[in-house]
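Hi all, posting the design record for the shared folder.

TITLE: backbone redesign
STEP: 1 of 1
STRUCTURE INPUT:
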């Protein structure tokens, strides 16, 4: 699959980055990502999800909606087909 949309316009010449510039950019981004500041910021912004959010005690993410969707009980207290 070719995702280079510049080829749709035939008059544009494709230019590549000089190797030295590409290496410079790769090294700079690697150093920046490995810096103490970046590592501390990653720890600060990491949010630990509470397990109780993913498995609530009542069994539903929204108890009011779960109650509204629950099928109505049989009027005589018996399941349909019994009695």
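Okay, here is what came back for every position:
SEQUENCE:
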């Amino acid at each position: 699959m070719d995702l280079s949309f510049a080829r749709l316009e035939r008059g544009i010449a494709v230019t590549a980055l000089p190797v030295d510039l590409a290496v410079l950019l790769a090294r700079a981004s690697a150093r920046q990502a490995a810096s103490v500041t970046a590592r501390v910021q990653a720890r600060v912004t990491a949010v630990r999800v509470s397990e109780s959010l993913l498995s609530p005690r009542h069994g539903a993410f929204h108890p009011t909606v779960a109650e509204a969707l629950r099928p109505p009980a049989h009027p005589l207290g018996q399941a349909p087909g019994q009695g």
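COMMENT: The CA atoms of residues 49 and 55 lie 11 Å apart.
Let me know if anyone wants the other runs.
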